[in-house]
Specification:
This protein is mainly α and 327 residues long. The chain is built from 13 helices and five strands. The protein folds into two domains: 210 residues, HUPs (Rossmann fold, 3-Layer(aba) Sandwich); 84 residues, Tyrosyl-Transfer RNA Synthetase (Orthogonal Bundle). Strand 2, helix 2 and strand 3 form a beta-alpha-beta unit. The chain has a three-stranded parallel beta sheet with strand order 1-2-3. The chain has a two-stranded parallel sheet with strand order 4-5. The chain is globular and about 70 Å long.
Length: 327
Amino acid sequence: MRVFSGIQPSGKIHIGNYLGSLMQWVSFQEKNECIFSVVDLHSLTVPYNPSLLEEKIFEKVIAYLAAGINPKKSIIFIQSQVKEHAELNWLLSVVTPVSELKRMTQYKEKAKKYPKNINAGLLNYPILMAADILLYDTDVVPVGEDQAQHLEMTRLIARNFNKRFGNVFKIPKAFIPKTGEKIMSLTEPTKKMSKSDKNPKSYITLFDSPEEIKKKIMSAQTDSGLKIEYNPKLKPGISNLLTIYSLFSETPINRLEKKFEGKNYKFFKENLADLLIEKLAIFREEKKKFKKDGGSLKRILDEGRKKAQVIAFKKMKKIKKSMGLTI
């Protein structure tokens, strides 16, 4: 199967992104043809600092590599460096109903969050996402629940196009991970961890220092009572920390409950902080390595861009031909 997915360079990449996305990608690349992009064009739809964008893009690529994405097995590239993404975005717009775009939950949320920046790109975001996916004849797209609606829009766009211009696009399927997709905020454990959260204490980034990790874990919200048990409804705070511990240690939650039976929250948090400091060390090390040798990172991206362009160019020829455009 061919798998495609990507992460925007906006915000700090955190442990929720790692557990819910990057870990899944690593497992996919073992038996599938995988294409992973930093989807920088998507990040332009909300206010951002242009002087920091390149640094954020490279940080995401480093996270991919540190997580275990192998450039010899998978294609890693930056979305804006393959022009066919933007070109297909326009071609797909002619088969996309505006009424469907306006009902997208994320559009409504972003429009509410940025009332002075309701731009056409924000409305057309799902079309660009469809272009990203359909351009590579993607079979499976790993997505979180918050992107499932957009993937359904991709399927609709593909069907509309095929009905009008012939059987050009595969209809991709979603893969929604059963574990790790919903890592909750450390400060508000009833809310999903988000890289756009204004409170840095609410998430742990993949590049946080050991001191920052320990400080955030020790101050993470827990619940009344002393028992360390998994009960998301009654004890969302400690349940969230148990989920994080379980996924990083690859230990079932029921075994952790037994391990920490009779222990207090402070003892548990100290153990979790030590675990995360150890497991995230590779991300800190890779960032230092590529900071010293930025050339190797650019070589990986250049190679990935070339591979992606070969596929994209070939697909665009077929798409244009089906639409009656001059090739």
